[in-house]
Amino acid sequence: MKKYYVMVRFEIQKHDFETLYSLIRIFFEQEVSVYPGFISSRILTNEDHTIVINEAAWESKEKFDAFVHEIVLTSETSKKIQAFKPSRETFYEFAYLPKAKFS
After folding, report:
1. Which domains, ranges and CATH numbers included, belong to the chain?
2. What are the CA-CA distances from residue 50 to residues 9, 10, 47, 81, 100 (Å)?
3. What is the pLDDT of residues 36-54, one digit of tens each?
4. Alpha-carbon distances of 77 from 8, 84, 100, rounded to whole Å
């Protein structure tokens, strides 16, 4: 099964990192992780904590779109996250490249 990936990128001030990170964690723990079709997520940041990227895997675009309409547009936590002006890109899994095995 090919997965659907969503990458949400934030460019923030260093002093906003802890607040944004906390909001993302709360949102994923309480609202995203229990939603049908959600697979996994990880939060990436640069060394200065001025760029935050949330990468999430979903079973399908349809399940992600349903989540956006039912949760993202109505959630109070999501609205607080949106205040950080994220940009979003979506991707379909094209190929899986496993780690090389050496003999």
Report:
1. 4-92 (3.30.70.100)
2. 11, 8, 8, 15, 34
3. 999 999 999 999 999 999 9
4. 15, 12, 41
